[in-house]
Amino acid sequence: MGNKIEVKNLHLIFGSSKKQAIKMLKSGATKEQIHNKTKCTVAVNNANLTINEGEIFVIMGLSGSGKSSLLRCFNMLNIPTRGSIEIDGKDITQMNKKELLEFRRKKVGMVFQHFGLLPHRTIVENVAFGLEIQETTTEDRLRKAREVIDLVGLKGYEDSYPHQLSGGMQQRVGIARAIATDSDILLMDEAFSALDPLIRVQMQDDLIELQQSLKKTIIFITHDLDEAVKLGSRIAIMNDGVIVQQGEPEEILLHPANDYVREFVGNVDMSKVVTASSIMRVFREKLVLGKDGPAYAARKMSQNNFRFMATVNNSGVFQGYIVERDVRRLLEKNEKDLSKIVMDIPQVNSGTPLSDLLPLYIQQKYPLVVVNEKGIPLGYVDHTDVVSLVTGYNNGEVKEIIENASN
Amino acid sequence: MNIGKYVELFVDWLSEVGRPVFNQITIFIENTVDILQEGLLSIPFYIIILLFAILAFYVKNKSFRQYKISKKNWKNLFGLSFFCILGLSLIYLMGFWTQMIDTFVLVLVSTLIVLIIGIPLGIWCAHNKRIYIIVRPLLDFMQTMPAFVYLIPAILFFSVGNVPGVLATVIFSLPPAVRMTTLGIKEVPKEIVEASVAFGCTPRQTLFKVQLPLATPTILAGVNQVIMLALSMVVIASMVGAGGLGESVYAGIQQADVALGFEAGLCIVILAIILDRMTQALGDKKEEL
Prior knowledge:
The complex is a heterodimer of chains A (407) and B (289). Chain A is 41% helix and 23% strand. Chain A has 407 residues and is an alpha/beta fold. Chain A starts with a strand and ends with a helix. The model of chain A has no long low-confidence stretch (mean pLDDT 86). Chain B is flat and about 65 Å long.
């Protein structure tokens, strides 16, 4: 997986006195100041992005944040004022007319929010549109179009007209049209935003499935964080023409770069995104059954103020917890074998999402254990961390609430 | 201020300088009109009526094949054809057949010239803001200036007869052709045009594969208006010697002949209804039967 698209210092300014606007931007003027003085709108301000081959890269932001304007730079529907976009090592901003036409025809497909289908053409003619303008033979392009229609699940609708189809189906036509040309980059501009929620989820699932077989490089625009998190292998968040943060979904959710992102992230359903590994705490000490005795365990516990400790066998596989109370009882009875007091604890793996962890806590007094595929314990997920993530309170507040409740 | 005087000087100068060009135009239009008139008049009237009726049926139904006759839809299918047969027969029986053909040819030629000029101009206006800014007030001027005024320079340039009539008609009925073409193209959803560009259409491909097909209903509505305006102007143009039904109406006025005036007027109404309904049907989508 190499870098497919490299965006460097990209500026997009609408208006007539672009040079002055760029100058003002360099000297640190704000968007409003520039607009008041030059009547220019700064749509994209110094964007730098690297998009890998075969990933779904999501650009997210509210309306007016410049995300759609940025997307339209990737096929030069908007011509960047400054900066470069290298695709497979070729700067598309430097292409001449002929190269650009060829690039649009062969390399990049686009899917639109309101589908952008031709109402006077049948589905198969719409899908074949991209091939038609390349002057392929009718037979070839219709065969290819039928293949793609089959792929997006619209077999049987080839000779219908767009207005006879539902929104979701029309967008499938849009997607089919975009992939019919075998271009390896797909630009999707709020492609699912006009669809109702149920259809939308279905389309997202289908897109992920389609992506697994086609391995396109997809740039997806959305204003919906849930959608971004679900689809994106990486996400860039835009505000006022600036990319304020980019990274993997979890990284953005857990470490928002500024208040704008934090506010954005505030509404997302964390439990679907956050996985066990990202909120677990690492075991500092473990007890080895058959080697360590109760006296050692008791000393470690009082030293570190542990309520419980994890135990492993000789090969490091997790066995269960032992708790302080049981260790003391063992010492009183003067017994040596810790394995008698080991408690069974539910185990999860590092990729388990929070929403699957929550039910396990209902009957569980002690933290869940995160293990790798060999059964070796990696860490534990504490109640307070889970509660604070789900509720948005910080750990101290959660502890206080729990204490107040138990008093 | 004496603006009129300067306009007069300009028109005089133009008619002097442009004489060879105007002569060529005169010859061309005159020949076209003559050939069409003579050609149509050489065909027996009942065949022309029949052709009108068949054409009416075709534009109403967009096809000769897929239809089923039922009590509900026979009006839709055959109504206009019946009207053509009845109306045109009436014109023939009243003795205005030749005049009707003359008028029809004048309208036809004027409309064709208007479309040849108007549609490309409309496309240009839709794509170029500056051209639109220049053309728009000209169109307003052309449309609001009383139609009779065009007749004066038309006589100076092209003397009397059918030719000044046709050209005055062209000027008078050009605006809707330009306007509706511009409107139709501007109305094409931005996203669809964007899609065509995104998939690598050249501007020409975008125009012919996307913009014009989607603008067609609006352009056809413009054609309808053009024909109606042309018909009304062709009557007025009889004042500069254009022939046809207008001539009869004009004669009716001069002789205070109510009978003649009414009969000629009725013929114009019949022709207007036929042309209007036919061109309107062109723009309608095919009804699903």
